[in-house]
Amino acid sequence: MTDQRRRVDSAPVTAGRSLIRAAPYGSLALWGGPVAHGLRFAMAVTADVPSNAQTGPVALPWPPPGVFPAHPVYGSMSPAEEPSTEPTASGSAVSRVLLLAPTPFAAGLGDQDVAARLNLCGSAPHSGQWVSVAFGGWVAPLPADAWPAAAARFAQRHPTADLFDLGSGWSLLQMEVAEAVVRTARARLLLGAEAAVGLLVGAAGPRH
Q: Which residues lie below 8 Å from residue 133, measured CB to CB, with a gap of 6+?
């Protein structure tokens, strides 16, 4: 049987990385719950995965056949969407996305990790190519004792005075990334945890 998985063109990943680096906002959709639009975000990456890592991308049929899953990240997977079994880059990585959210929204998360999807969509800088990136994972409020270091990291991307209002009007959330879907007009890729982290590693740093 022909293996549906194949090594894919890096163009969609490059476009996705460019969008992540430049996007000012993202939308956070909680599994079975509310959606928060216009959230500023920053990457908090600790990794030894190379920034150009292309580990485990899976080419998916495009346009997608049949009924599109209700949840593009956590929906049912077709065989073409199964995680790649190709060897991955050596090393490990832990990656989080920091999100600045209104305190009432953050309070609604409680103390539990909540399955969530972070959506970014727009034109990739320079190329002008339309691209969307959806990160799947778990989101939770960041503990208050971690705010000072996280706020300093966040300010490198978003030097906003709202960081002085943490605990009152605003709160920091942390999202652990488990996978990502990158879409362009011509391609749709599912990236496993390590490849999704590689996408973030390459996009980390101040916005252009």
A: 16, 19, 20, 119, 120, 121, 180, 181, 182, 183, 199
Taking the C-alpha atoms of residue 162 and residue 190, their distance in angstroms, rounded to an integer, is 34
d(CA 105, CA 124): 29
- Assess whether pLDDT exceeds 60 at residue 48: no
Exposed/middle/buried for 32, CB within 10 Å: 0-12, 13-18, 19+? Answer: exposed
Q: What is the pLDDT of residue 197?
A: 87
pTM for the model stands at: 0.74
